[in-house]
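Question: Now follow the chain.
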Amino acid sequence: MNNLTKYFILLILFIAFHFSQAQTAEHKLYDPSANAENDIEFSIKKAQKENKHVLLQVGGNWCKWCIEFNRFCKADAQIDSILNADFIVYHLNYSKENKNEKLLAKYGFPQRFGFPVFIILDENGNRIHTQNSSYLEEKQSYSKDKVFEFLKQWNRKSISPQTYQNKK
């Protein structure tokens, strides 16, 4: 083989390896080795600074509905916009490698609803809502209307008393 052929083969292998790694990393929403307690504490502090709530999406890389929810949200500009405007999102792992049982007990055993399950935390880290994701499903994905309403009903403005006080 001449040098040009070797270079071309190496270039093709490099590109193929790079794209295979990018696709693998892209689909790894959940990190079983993460220190979820620290990560959630960081998310709460960030939410306080940005005047948002925290949305914990509990699930795992093994869960097709968990992956689909993430894809669905990113694919819809309106849903993605609401998530970015109103929530700090954290993917809390639940897998055979790490079930995060202590944290899930703290949040009222949300795994009883199946996966994914969504937990909304206020700016102080208090659980204010747990959402069974099956109520948001539609056919092989999620309902835009249902997801939109869920997110709008649990943002800070929607649960603030000032939103409902008579303004004279």
